[in-house]
Every structure is written in C-alpha cells, then in structure tokens.
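User: What would this chain look like folded?
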Amino acid sequence: MAVAEKKLSKKLEEIHERIKAELPWEPVGPTPMPEMPDLRQWDMRLLKTYTPFYAPFCDLCCFCTYGKCDLTEGRRGACGIDISTQQARFILLACLIGCSAHAAHGGHILEFLIEKHGPDKKIDLGTFIELEAPNIRTVVGLKPETLGDLKIALEYVFKEIAHLLDSCHTGQEGSSLDYESKALHASMLDHVGMEIADIAQIVGFDFPTSVAETPLVDMGWGAIDKSKPVILVSGHNPATSTVVIDYLREHNLEDQVEVCGLCCTALETTRYSDKAKIVGPLSRQLFFMRTGIADVIMTDEQCIRTDTPQEAAKVGSAMIACLDKAMYGLEDATELDTDEIVRRMVDNKEQFAILDSPKAAEVAVKVALEIAPQRKKAWVTEEEAIELAKKCTDCKMCEQVCPNLFNIGGGITEVAKGNFDLIRQQFLQCIGCGKCEEECPNNVPIFKIMQTAAGEETWKCRAGRGPVMDTEIRNVGAPITLGTIPGVIALVGCSNYPNIEDVADMVDEFAKRKYIVVLTGCAAMVAGMKKDKDGLTVYEKYPPNFDAGGVVNIGSCVSNAHISGAAIKIANIFAALPLRGNYEVMADYVLNRVGACGVAWGAMSQKAASIGTGFNRLGVPVVLGPHSSKYRRLFLSRKEEDDWKVMDARKREIVDTVEPAPEHLAYVCETKEKAMPMIAKLCIRRNDTPQGRAIKLNHYISLYRKYIGAGLPEDIHLFVRRDADIPLVYKKEVRAHLQEIGWQPREPIGLPTLIGTYPTKVPLDAVIH
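Assistant: Here's the prediction, encoded as structure tokens.
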C-alpha cells in the first residue's frame, strides 16, 4: 500500500473510532468529519452556476504591513492578491467569526451543563423526535446520545476553524473560489455548532421540545412591570439568565422581581420561564437602556452594545458583565465576597465582571432589590419632549448618517411644534444604532424624545419550540417535495431592517398563501410587533404547526440549525436517503427537491453571514435585505446564460433543464415589494409535479402583479415545462405569451441530481431510493 493510502486509511480509522462507526444505525458515508478539500468539488459545482458577485466596500487591502495596497483596475497587492480574492477572504473571516461565536457559545453551555448534570446526561428531545441531530449526523457522522457525545462534534468544529483561519494569513490562498469554498465549509460547521448549542440547552435547561403550541409571551416596553425591581438580560447565552430565574424561584422572589430580555437571551429566557418578558430585538437595545427602566443590566455575549457600561451609568442602572467574551475592562469580581460586591455596587455605583453564573445571579437580584426603591423610572412627558426638541435646528446631519435616511430633523422639529405623528412613525422604523445622536452638533437627545413616541403598547411572541418534529416531517415531506405545499419560508437574522414592519407583512403574506413560515432570532420577535385590524399578531392569527399556513417560532439564533435540520430530515425521513457522513447527497436533494427559501431581511452580523452561507451550501437560497449588500458578496446566476444541466438519475443521462431553479443562492432586494415575488420564485424546484409547479407559479405571478405591476414576469417561460404547469387562473394569458415568444414544451426530469455532473466520490446510485 502506498504511503498516502496508508495515511488516509489511518486517518479514516481514527475518524471511525471517534464517531463510533461500529454502531450500525446507518452505514458511514463518504465524508464523515469532512476537512476543507472533502466537499470542495460540490462547492465548485455550486459556484459554477451561482457565481460570486462582489461589491467591494473598500478597494484597498490593509491586511499586513506591506499595505495599503490599491487593488483597483486589475492591480494585485504586494502579496499577489487581487480584489476578488481579497473580498472572498473577508467573507471567510466574517463566516469564521460567526461560526466561532456559535461554537464558543455551544462550548460554554456544554461545559456549564456537563458540570451541572455530568457527561452521561441522556439526549432526549421528546416523544416525537427520534432523529435528534440531523446536522451532526450528516456532517460529523455521529449519533450523539449524551452531552458528552456533543463534545466530540464540538472538538471537530474547533479543529476545522483553526485550519480555515490559517488560510486567511497573508501569503496563503490565492483563489477567490477556494476562499468561497472555505467560507461555505465554515458556515456548514456553524450549523453543527448551533445544533450542539441548542440540543445542549434543550436537554440541560428542559426547554420545550416535541411540542408545537408553546406559550404566547408578552413583548414590548409596556409589558414590563416597572413597579418591581427590573433585571435586564442582554445577549445570547442563557447560562446567566436561567440561573437568575433559578435563584428567584429558590428564594420565592419570582413574583417580586421582573426579568426581561433583549435579543436572543430574551427568547432563551422565555423558553425557561413563563414569567419572563421580551423587551424586543437588538434594535430596541439602546432605546430601552436609556429609559433607565432596568435596575440591573446583565450582559452575556454577542450583539450586545460595547458601550453598555457607559449607557448604564448614565441612567443609574447597575451593570454586570457575565461572560469572558465581553468584560469591558471591568474589575473581575468572580472571587470577591458576594456581600462586598453588592455593597460596592449599591454604595459606590461600581460595575463588575462576575464570571460565576450563580454568584452573578445572586448579586443581580440583591442589588436590584436594594436600588429599585431609590430610583425614578419615569417616561419623558410630551411637554418635556417639546422643550428638548426646540434645540434642533434641522441641520440634516442626523439624516446624513441614518442608515435608513430618515428625516429625523423633520420629526424633531415637528415635536417642537407639538406634533408627534412623524416621530412615532420614525420610532417604529428605527434600527436603534444611535448614529443620529452621535452626530448632532446641538446635542439634541433624540432617543429621549422618541420615548414619548414609543408608547406602552404590548405585543405577543410565541416562545421558541426547538426542533421540527419527525411526525411533522412525515406529514409534509411529500407535499413539499412535490410542490403542493408551495414552500418553506425561513425568516431569520438581525434587526437592521429598512422597515421593521416588513417582516410581519411578509409572514402574513406567505402564511395566508399556505406556505410554511418559520422564524428565529430577532426576526421571530419583530414578526410579533405588528397587529392587524382586529388587534392580533401573526402568532395569534396562524397555527404554530410546521404545516401549510403555520407560523412557527423555532427559537433563538442557535435554533437556526433546526431549520437546516428540517430540510435534512425531509431527505432522510421522507425520501429514506441515508445521511450519515453523506452531506453531498443531502445538499443535492435539498437543492433539487425541497422548495425552501431563507429571508435574512435585517442581517447585520457575522453570525448572520455564516448562518446564511451555511444554508447556501445545503442548497437553500437566501434573500437578503438592502443593508446586506455591505456583506460584499452575493451568489447569482445569469439565468439562460448559465449551466442548468442535471443528471436524470433514472435514465442515467445528463439533461439541460433550461430552468433556473433556484435562480440564485444569495440575493439582495431593496424593498419587501421586490422581495416577495423573488422569495416565491426561489421556492421553485426541478422536482415539482405539474400540480405543484402550477401552485408555485400562481403565487409567483400573483405576487408579481400585487407588488411589482401588471402583466407577467419576464422570465415566466423559463419555469413552464408543459401546459399542465400553467396555473388555471392565468392559463389563457400565459399560453398567449408563450406562443408569442415561440416557447417549446419540455419533459420534466424524473429524478434530478447534480451527482454525476462533476467529479465526486458519491455514486449515482446513492441518490436513488
């Protein structure tokens, strides 16, 4: 045996030992624990059709001390890099940051829960979930049965992160396509890390699972009982907030202290306690801190403002940093006596980092109980706001720095006249970045004035439910793959929206059209922040089931793994394709047969970049909001110019389908009106039956007419294979159009697959079931 073969064999033996390959739940596929090159051919096949489109935020490279290097007009930097490769390297770095954030979150949670329950704590996700970890099973090849088993998967993710980060060093990778392949790899790993984190949380904190109808949670500033001491938890990691709840329960204080949350920690806390409240998404963070309603602010990690200590001090809120990722330069009081910390926080207004969750919880509760009676929690009155607004000269500086270009000065000058209508509308749409106040030459307290516009309205958000149940997958597998359920729409990501109400509008539009709508993170909260004419949110209007017309809050950011996991489950449970170490087959099935589309309408973070790119590698297209153009890269096809050939697995021949299905993998839309027809179009798949295709085209055409204009979409001919594909209501009009342009019918593909159209270890028989 050659030396290379011996090394490969030895490596494979080690992998098989780590993933317990001897357990016969499924045969091990070709890529258990894949390394960077192992799925490269799949990536290159995707990138052949969905070519990276770069929109550089900067034409220079300032990465090393050779720079700055001008990369415009075909120039290369001192290390030899060109502008496309530099953009792709930046994308990989962003995806690695996102992947690392979720993996480190998972690592901390796992360590915390293993210390509490031991490594042999069984993974049990309830009666209706037997396929408990589809991402881990598919990518790693491991069936995790205990918390300790999750560490095996996590160690693999950490190892791959190190190798991927190494490739970003100056004088390494020289191909933009290979950097994109690495970004796809990092982002696939992100879905493994998220799955590890949320499975650990569900098992260790007893979060809801195997249930669809989770409780409706009160949301909004008005939901917070300001008469009680208020503890605000902010970030993503529930190791802190759950311990606060435990402390309150143990000391019979749960009804005496109000616990509320911002961002994903709010979603996690409300999965743990029915008394916790949601303030809102990330965009409400600065607003809420500046009201001074919170007596104590506890930060953990990710998407927390880096000026939290300063903002807390301004309004007299006590502040504790609870995780080592963000210590803000504060004194580490982890080893100090609890009573001493409380005294110094109450008497001296000191802020601390406390990295022991039980101690941080005890301190937070005791400080809140002591300082709350001494603090005034009063909203700014309209009379006070009018006086504050008179400082505004309407110089337009705030408008110039506003990401959404709001006429903020106009809103403030109207307030000075006693008219609050415009400022109320601007508050509803504000993303809460605070740039306007930073820029104001007259120091107008814009956020304080907006408090009068905020009101005390409350909304409802359904508590996160965790994984989609196997029973639900069995019910919808056939309708989704055949097209009679027109698609699964996943609204995910951050709150950097062009208009905060867009998300609720999109949820409502697709739910009433009988798409399955799933949500996570800030999008899940924002969806509930609009009421219809009857005063109902989308969570109250639509059922919580993973079925046609359902609106499902899956959970926090790390719960996104359950959405990609649901797509994998369709391939495994419905189509009976083995998933163990078999990523290419799963991704190929999803790309060609599962009508799903992600929508990251307010994406702003590196985590959102890796979440979306991970969906792309799995074959799920993602529509992004306008601010997401700043990510610098899209995956676009050129419709009829690109390669739409697939293998017809039953006939074993390559066929040119002509149809761009799905047309793009990552696409930016400027408005919700442009987004909704595109979302419907991106749910079209080559595997659609005539009935399913007609349903999908009916929605595509009707959404186009409702939001874009009269007539037919210019590309409708690409998606009509035979006359039976044409929706009945539009049949006469579409037939006339097709005849006019000389359209010719073509046969649908019985079993479309990309396997066999590019070099791969996967045999064609692997996709036939």
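The radius of gyration is 26 Å. If you want, I can go into more detail on any region.
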